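Give me structure tokens for this 347-residue protein.
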Amino acid sequence: MELIMSHGKFREDKTCQNCGNKVDHHYCSHCGQENTETRQPFYFLITHFIEDFVHYDSSFWHTIKNLFLKPGKITNEYLSGKRNSSVNPVKLYIFISFVTFFLIAVVPSKSSTTEGNVEISPAKEVLNKEKIQVKQSLDSLVIDGSITKNQKEFIDKAVDDGDEINLNEVDIKTIEEYEKDVNSKAPVLTRFISKFKELRSNNISTEEIAQNIIEHTLKLIPKALFVYMPLFAFLLWLFYNKKKNWYFDHGIFTLHYFSVVLISVLLIYLLTALSTYIEISFIVSILRFIAVLIGLYTIVNFILGLHRRYRENIIITLIKGILLIGINSIIFFTIIFGIIIYSYLHI
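Here you go.
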């Protein structure tokens, strides 16, 4: 029995728009194109995309269920040629990435919705007024010719950053030399500490700063995963039989596992965001505990997936799995840490 899945209004004209042949039913018997109207409402694009995965494509739920409950099974089925019962790995990853990016973007935490409304402390207001007065005095010195414009710009920057300027040091004769000396002394660490002081002076607590860092990290992980996938598959290729398993095979395993990771990241983000709106500490602790369990399960899922996919002794699988997790964690979190530091310094 033929199952017809209509995704739009059918045309009254029975001439195929693609190949020009006559269409006897809903689909052209020559090229297979559906005989629907060319122009559709905008919502059609969204509903069509979702229907392909959820409503009409029952293989989506079959795929998701087995990715979490039977890691490695979908990969084995796909590589053995049984591909109609599951969603294409690339298509699956793209869809899950879209959902993850979208929900992380539209679901804010309480801290992110209030961080733009932080009141500046009275001490901060006094400091800002003093900075304005200093800059006005510098303008007068430039007009008088007492200092150059370059010197004024340097002092302005020092005032904004809260740096101390000592022009009486013996080994520093000019402001230009002083600027070079300051920049050579741990500039990143200095900026990191200055940023922390700035946030604290704006009445942002250490807990809120940590919460924001966690949220930024979760938002960056989907992007970092996409870039990191080829290297992840390459490490699998190095650890397992290069003749028996092609790089393509490891790529399919990687797409399936990273789909699990993305869903886990999304669930952790939603639980973390939800916890910021709840003031009952017991419930918050439960939500955070569940988030930790989800994170730990991604590790268990990886080990089980390796065991089912590559069919090695469980001890060998554990050793290789732990080594792979260790190597990937060092590389991946080094990348994430660098991105976090950059984002933190540019808040």
